Structure formats: C-alpha cells, structure tokens
Amino acid sequence: MFHKGYIIAESVFSLSRTLNRGQLNLDRFEFWQPTSQLLALDVCLSDAFA
C-alpha cells in the first residue's frame, strides 16, 4: 500500500512541476487539479486502512 501511494505521490509531484513550468494548458490544469486531490485522498485512505 505504501509503495503504491509513493508512486502516486511522485506522479502528482512531477505533474505539479510540469504545471509550474506552464507546459500544460489551462483546460488540463482544471482537469488535473481535482484529480490530483482525489489521488491524494486515495493515498490517505489506503494508508489509514492498511
């Protein structure tokens, strides 16, 4: 469970860096922001019930 959460966290971190460099357009940003929050929530829940 922890390993899966780590991979998701790395993905979100990489995505954040890409967004900060402005390589993604606004439509994708608006899509990814809630998605990344859901992924973070999923990590928290999986850690809580692990």
Task: Please give a structural write-up.
InterPro entries: DUF645 (IPR006959). This protein is an all-alpha fold and 50 residues long. It is built from two helices and no strands. Helix 1 packs antiparallel against helix 2. The longest helix is centred in the last third of the chain and has 24 residues. The chain starts with a helix and ends with a helix. 0% of the residues are buried.
What would you call the structural class?
Answer: mainly alpha
Stretches with pLDDT under 50, minimum 5 residues: none
Distance between the termini: 7 Å
- Shape descriptor reads elongated
- Which radius of gyration do the C-alpha atoms yield? 12 Å
Main sheet overview: none
Continuous helix count: 2
- The helix content, as a percent range, equals over 70%
Strand content: under 5%
Question: Helix and strand succession?
Answer: HH
Mean pLDDT: 72
How many β-strands, per DSSP?
A: 0
Provide a concise account of the structure shown.
The protein has 50 residues and is an all-alpha fold.
List keywords for this structure.
86% helix, DUF645 family protein, 50 residues, 2 helices, single chain, mainly alpha, DUF645
